[in-house]
C-alpha cells in the first residue's frame, strides 16, 4: 500500500540557488520513514550550491542535498526491529549488492551505486536536508539516544576516515602524517590515534585547522610552507611510515613522496581537480605503496560505535549550526574555510 506525506525540503536548483519548498514523499509499508533532526554540510553540497555540479555530477533538476544526517523513526515496517521514536543515523550508500564487486565485498566500487544527495544519475538521488526522508531498513543504524544528533551526523565522514585507516593497514607503532586538517583529515587523525599510531603530525595551511588537528589528537601541526620542517621529515629517505593525503592539493600530493620513508605507504583520500606532476622516479626508488581510499565498505557500524563510545570525538570540528530555514547562509558559511570546518543544519521543531 502506498502512502504520501508532504514536508519541507532544501532543494538546490542550480548555481547559487537553493529554495525551501514542499516535497511530496511516497512510501510503502516496507519502507522506513525517518524524521530528520540534523545534517552536516560536505564539500559536495558546497559544490552543488556554488557551481551547480560536484565533479562530473551535474544538476539536471532540483535536488535535496546532504548525505550526512540523523533522525528518528517515524514509521517502521511491520515486524521490523526498528521502533517508532528510535534515534537512527542513515547510511547514504545504496550499492546494488548483485554486481561482481558487491559480491566480492567491495561495495564502494559498485558501478550501480546510488548515493543519497548525488546528481550522478537522472533522476537524482535526493539527500537528507528534508523534514522527512524515506529509506530502507538496512540503511538505518540505531544509536544511543543520549548522544546528540549533531555528533552523530559525523558517522558518514567518520566511516570514510576509518576506511582510509583500513586501506593503510596496521598503524600500531607507526608514525603518521596527515596532510589537510579539514573534517576528513581531522577524523583520520583521531582514527589513526585510536588505531595505535605512536606519532601523528598534521599539515595544513590554516592556523585554525592546525589548532583543530591538535584537538583531534595530532602531536604536532605544521604549515606546508614551513620548508624547514618538511626538509627535516624528508632526510634519510623520509620519516613517516604512513602518509594520508586529505587535501587534494596538487603540491601536497607531490610532497607525500619525500616525507614518507622508504617502503612506506601513502593513502590518497583527497580528490584533486588538477593534473599532478608526481615524482614517480622517487616513489619507485623508495618502493612506496600508493593507495587510493574511496568512500567506505562495511565500516559504518564501526563508526557509529566509535562515536557512541567517544573513541572519536568530532566536537572540535563543529564550527557553526543553523536551522534549515537558514540553509543558504549555512552553505555560504561552510564555503568560507577561514571560519568553517563542519557546519551543521538542524531540523528540530
Automatic annotation (TrEMBL):
Domain Alcohol dehydrogenase-like C-terminal: 183-308
Protein origin, superkingdom: Bacteria
PANTHER family per UniProt: SORBITOL DEHYDROGENASE
Cofactor(s) required, per the database record: Zn(2+)
Family named by the database record: Belongs to the zinc-containing alcohol dehydrogenase family.
Protein name: L-idonate 5-dehydrogenase
Stretches that traverse the bilayer: none
Species of origin: Orbus sasakiae
UniProt-listed InterPro entries: ADH-like_C, ADH-like_N, GroES-like_sf, NAD(P)-bd_dom_sf
Keyword annotations from UniProtKB, A to Z: Metal-binding, Oxidoreductase, Zinc
Domain Alcohol dehydrogenase-like N-terminal: 29-142
Amino acid at each position: 500500500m502506498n502512502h504520501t506525506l508532504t514536508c519541507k525540503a532544501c532543494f538546490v536548483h542550480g548555481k547559487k540557488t537553493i529554495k525551501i519548498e514542499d516535497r511530496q514523499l511516497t512510501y510503502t509499508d516496507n519502507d522506513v520513514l525517518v524524521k530528520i533532526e540534523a545534517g552536516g554540510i560536505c564539500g559536495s553540497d558546497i559544490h552543488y550550491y556554488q557551481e551547480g555540479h560536484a565533479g562530473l555530477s551535474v544538476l539536471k533538476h532540483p535536488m535535496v542535498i546532504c548525505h550526512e544526517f540523523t533522525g528518528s523513526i517515524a514509521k517502521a515496517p511491520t515486524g521490523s526491529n526498528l521502533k517508532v521514536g528510535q534515534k537512527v543515523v542513515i547510511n547514504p550508500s545504496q550499492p546494488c549488492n548483485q554486481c561482481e564487486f558487491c559480491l566480492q565485498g567491495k561495495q564502494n566500487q559498485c558501478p550501480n551505486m546510488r548515493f543519497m544527495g548525488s546528481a550522478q544519475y537522472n533522476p537524482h538521488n535526493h539527500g537528507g536536508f528534508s523534514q522527512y526522508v524515506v529509506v530502507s531498513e538496512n540503511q538505518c543504524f540505531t544509536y544511543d539516544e543520549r548522544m546528540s544528533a549533531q555528533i552523530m551526523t559525523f558517522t558518514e565522514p567518520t566511516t570514510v576516515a576509518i576506511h582510509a585507516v583500513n586501506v593503510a593497514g596496521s598503524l600500531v607503532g607507526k608514525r603518521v602524517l596527515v596532510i589537510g586538517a579539514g573534517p576528513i583529515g581531522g577524523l583520520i587523525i583521531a582514527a589513526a590515534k585510536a588505531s595505535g599510531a605512536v606519532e601523528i603530525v598534521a599539515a595544513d595551511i590554516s592556523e585554525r585547522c592546525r589548532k583543530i588537528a591538535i584537538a583531534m589528537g595530532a602531536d604536532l601541526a605544521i604549515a606546508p610552507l614551513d620548508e624547514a620542517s618538511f626538509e627535516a621529515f624528508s632526510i634519510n629517505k623520509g620519516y613517516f611510515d604512513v602518509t594520508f593525503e586529505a587535501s587534494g592539493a596538487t603540491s601536497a600530493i607531490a610532497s607525500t613522496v619525500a616525507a614518507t620513508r622508504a617502503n612506506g605507504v601513502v593513502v590518497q583520500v583527497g580528490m584533486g581537480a588538477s593534473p599532478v606532476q608526481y615524482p614517480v622516479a622517487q616513489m619507485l626508488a623508495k618502493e612506496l605503496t600508493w593507495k587510493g581510499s574511496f568512500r567506505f565498505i562495511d565500516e559504518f557500524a564501526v563508526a557509529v560505535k566509535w562515536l557512541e563510545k567517544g573513541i572519536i570525538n568530532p566536537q572540535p570540528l563543529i564550527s557553526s549550526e543553523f536551522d534549515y530555514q537558514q540553509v543558504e547562509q549555512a552553505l555560504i558559511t561552510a564555503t568560507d574555510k577561514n571560519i568553517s570546518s563542519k557546519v551543521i543544519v538542524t531540523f528540530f521543531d
